[in-house]
Amino acid sequence: MELNCLALPYLxxxxxxxxxxxxxxxxxxxxxxSAASAHPDSQYSIFSADPLVRLESRAGKxxxxxxxxxxxxxxxxxxQEMAAWPEIKSDLPFATGAxxxxxxxxxxxxxxxxxxxxxxxxxxELALGFYDWAVISNHDTQETVLISLDDPALRLAWLERQIExxxxxxx
Length: 171
Fold this sequence. Notes:
Blueprint: E1 4-8, H1 13-20, E2 30-32, E3 44-48, E4 53-58, E5 61-64, E6 67-68, H2 74-84, E7 97-102, E8 126-131, E9 133-138, E10 143-148, H3 152-170
Antiparallel strand pairs: 1-10, 2-3, 3-9, 4-5, 4-8, 5-6, 7-8, 9-10
């Protein structure tokens, strides 16, 4: 499958954060910010939201898009989603797909581990979104691109509506 790209005006770090701000309140919004501008690996910043698929695991129970998946372990659910996701060849650091977090307690789905601490924070062991679009800024070349599995112009229109809605709430 080919990745659809739409060149956007360059978003430096400050502009990228401003552009992401209206999305930040959406469930599953994600920002990978290359904040340490002097670091040699700080070339890219990426944001996305509104994933097609949301996987969560709590106490070994897997939930896909708010539906419990009784027969799947967390890693089997990831494998299933990855197998269904299109393979895309790209030089970009992210070409749609999975972004999220794996907690240490996810290891309990693989082996018996001692419980040495209280579960004092109500976070899932796995929170993984499968995103069909992203905005990527290359801070070295000063280029920004919107990537999408579908028409990127439609996603850009959606982004603009989110920004306008946020401006209406705060204006």
